[in-house]
Every structure is written in C-alpha cells, then in structure tokens.
Amino acid sequence: MNIQSEAKRHTKPKPHNQQGTSQFNGLAVIFQLLSEVVPPQYFDRLFGGSTLGGLLVFAYWYWSNVYSQFPSESIAFPNYVIPAIAVVLLGMFYFSVRTEAQCPNCDTAFALRRTEREVERDHFSNEADDLLVRREEWCTRCSFENEDEFWRKDPDQRSPGQ
C-alpha cells in the first residue's frame, strides 16, 4: 500500500476475471467430456509423449544447426521446428489445465470449477487499484467446495510510469 497516496474504499461487488474463469471452466468441461470416453491416463501418455518428442526434435535442431554453426550469424530455421514448438506448448497447456482442474478431495481429473468476483477495491490515485477477490471452487463429482479471499493489483489498470 502506498502511504503517500490516499486510498478510497469501494465496496460495490462486481464480477472479476469472468473471461479467465469461463475459459478455464470451458476447457475443463471439454477435457472432462473427453476423459469420460478415454481415461485420462491415455491423454497423459499421449500429451506427455508428444511433448517429450517435441522437446527432442527441438534439441536435435539446436544441436545440429545452432550449436554446430554458433560463430556464424546465419542459422537455418527448418520447417519441422515450428510444429515441434507447437506440440510442446500444447502438451504444457494440457498438463497445466489438468493440474489446475483436478479435485483435491476425490482426485478426479478436470472436475474442479471456479469463479472469481471482486469483493472490495482500494482505489489509489497514482497506481493500480488493490482488489480483494473471492475465489470459489467446487467439484462436479464430489461435495468439495472451497472459498478463498486474496488481494491483488487490478490487471486492467496501468500505473502512470508504465
């Protein structure tokens, strides 16, 4: 909290980060529907293997082209590197959604949903507002529910110096 600027407290609740939570919930629903047809272990192997393969392709390109021609400023960028990077990013994305959407109570993959809403806002004249955000999480398979409140800076505002 900045001591030089005066804070004005606003307590009108408003939705916060609805786009991020709806995208998270939508992806979790898609993967949950897929995991009802195919067990998540197979997805783990598929995405894990493809991520490892993409990393190996990228390492091969680095070793054969970049490392061997290091003093030279011209480095060839073959066509197979871009799909390898895309496969690695897709695998990392899958595993991040899987870990974030796994219920801590019943360990069901892609069963956790969440909403976030702004509870309170401290308005500062010279910097981004401080937001008190309430995150509610619940499981679609068991009776797990969790509620957490935390402070963070408003991501939609920029400080004057930025």
What does this protein structure show overall?
Helix 2 (40-67) runs antiparallel to helix 3. Strands 1, 2, 3, 4 and 5 form a five-stranded antiparallel sheet that branches. 9% of the residues are buried. The longest helix has 28 residues, at 40-67. The chain is of the alpha+beta class and 162 residues long. The chain has one domain (8-153). The two termini are 18 Å apart. It has three helices and five strands; from the N terminus they run E-E-H-H-H-E-E-E. The model is unreliable at 1-5 (pLDDT under 50).
Distance between the termini: 18 Å
Give the overall shape, derived from the CA principal axes: flat
Count of structural domains: 1
The H/E string reads EEHHHEEE
What's the rounded overall pLDDT mean?
Answer: 78
In short:
The chain has three helices and five strands.
What order do the helices and strands come in, and which of them pair?
Blueprint lengths: L6 E4 L3 E2 L2 H20 L2 H28 L13 H20 L11 E13 L5 E10 L5 E9 L9
Antiparallel strand pairs: 1-3, 2-3, 3-4, 4-5
Helix pairs in contact: 2-3
